[in-house]
Prior knowledge:
The chain is α/β, with parallel strands linked by helices. Helix content is 33%, strand content 18%. It is built from 5 helices and 7 strands.
Amino acid sequence: xxxxxxxxxxxxxxxxxxxxxxxxxxxxxxxxxxxxxxxxxxxxxxxxxxxxxxxxxxxxxxxxxxxxxxxxxxxxxxxxxxxxxxxxxxxxxxxxxxxxxxxxxxxxxxxxxxxxxxxxxxxxxxxxxxxxxxxxxxx
Length: 139
């Protein structure tokens, strides 16, 4: 089955109910898109948890090398990695208590989508979380 995003209403509910976003591939380089988007979401009130084995801290938050290392509940797993890395990240995601997997704009992987859907995940791909938040969630 071809990948398909949830309805705008479902995505809006996800964003309104979420408090914590684990960002896989979050860079500590302020010039990177992952940093800029995560900083914007942090300003909107979300707790950002960096998941990147190459950094110690980003946006004032301790970074973790993998999703399994995050010691607290995660509401959304937001991924800033190339499409070929999504299947491995999807597998890692199923070992967490989170069931929402969001791949940023331009990132799609059918294998990861199928695997996540088989494991009862809500999957969002090829959408920028910051743009969708600005459009769907009125502050």
